[in-house]
């Protein structure tokens, strides 16, 4: 049964990727060697003799025409024409036709007759020196042709081998499902099935994350609102001299802080492209966080200096920006025992510096890790992890300089466009 194009393609696709590449290289080598063998079959001496003969035929016809009209023919450089009387004795022994000798003393003799008289056309080797250049050029052309053919065959075979990988990569990148080649039995099929399984696992994980975010938003906001309302009621109903006022006030502040952190975490669980953004006055957020830091500065010789213009605005999400400022400023106030905490804002660049002991060795200043153990109390590692996540979520840049003399956090935000 003859093999059709469809059956050959089916057979090729059933091969493994390794076998396809091997077959492609074998075919490439076979094609190149076949072309070289065909070129080797060409007899350069015969080609050269044929060119010399054709050239002399044209020259003889020209000379015969000139002699027949009684003109003195013009001869090319390196050519001599003798008649029967003027021909050297050594040439007279040659009969009509072509005669010649190869190098080093190359010469070519053509004996012909015109008007019943014999003539001898003698040409030296320089007259046909161009043939050597033609042969060399032909050899270079053969080599170039071999290279181009090898390149073309290699590209064709590589395209056929890589085409499934390219198509699969485009499908994965563009999230086109189902992924192609999942039923293939070669390495491409294994890769396609692995991608499909991994994609399904990611989708299930994201679905669980979304369900958790929705459940947390619904199940935690209501109890926190109830606790906060009850604590606020206690603060207002308790006598001013009651020893429970401080506890109720602390419960209310902690509940409010939990509500803010919950809002921030829910925003961080969303796709950054879906997080709402607006023009936010940064100084207002800084002043709000400064008031909330009062308990950590109470009774300590620490000055909180704010240097920020009133009109500086950034394009961001207010809750995430508030969380970044709050966590950085709270840590600075909480762990600075004396000296100064300085907050500066210059052209959407926020700097928070303190004179505290710096970050502990357990916290990497370049890459904060979640739940990294800290020698300090208060969860600084977790707070800085949230800061970093919020910064990455908003597409900002943050750098940290830390030493025994304090810390300097620099956050580069996106300024609001002019006229916004």
Commentary on this structure:
The chain has 420 residues and is an alpha+beta fold. It is built from eleven helices and eleven strands. α2 (17-40) packs antiparallel against α5. The relative contact order is 0.06. Residues 369-380 have low confidence and may be disordered.
What's the SSE blueprint?
Blueprint: H1 5-14, H2 17-40, H3 44-68, E1 79-83, H4 89-92, E2 97-101, E3 107-114, E4 117-124, H5 130-174, H6 187-237, H7 245-268, E5 278-281, H8 282-292, H9 294-297, E6 302-307, E7 313-316, H10 318-335, E8 339-346, E9 349-354, H11 380-394, E10 397-403, E11 406-412
Parallel strand pairs: 6-8
Antiparallel strand pairs: 1-4, 2-3, 3-4, 5-7, 8-9, 9-11, 10-11
Structure summarized in a few sentences:
The chain is an alpha+beta fold.
Approximately what portion of the residues adopt beta-strand conformation?
A: 15-25%
Biggest sheet strand line-up: 6-8-9-11-10
Mean pLDDT: 80
Total number of beta strands = 11
What proportion of the residues is helical, as a percent range? 55-70%
Shape: elongated
Run of helices and strands:
HHHEHEEEHHHEHHEEHEEHEE
Q: What's the alpha carbon Rg, rounded to whole Å?
A: 46 Å
Helix and strand content put the structural class at: alpha+beta
| Number of continuous helical runs | 11
Distance between the termini: 76 Å
Low-confidence stretches: 369-380
In this structure, how is the largest beta sheet organized? 5 strands, mixed
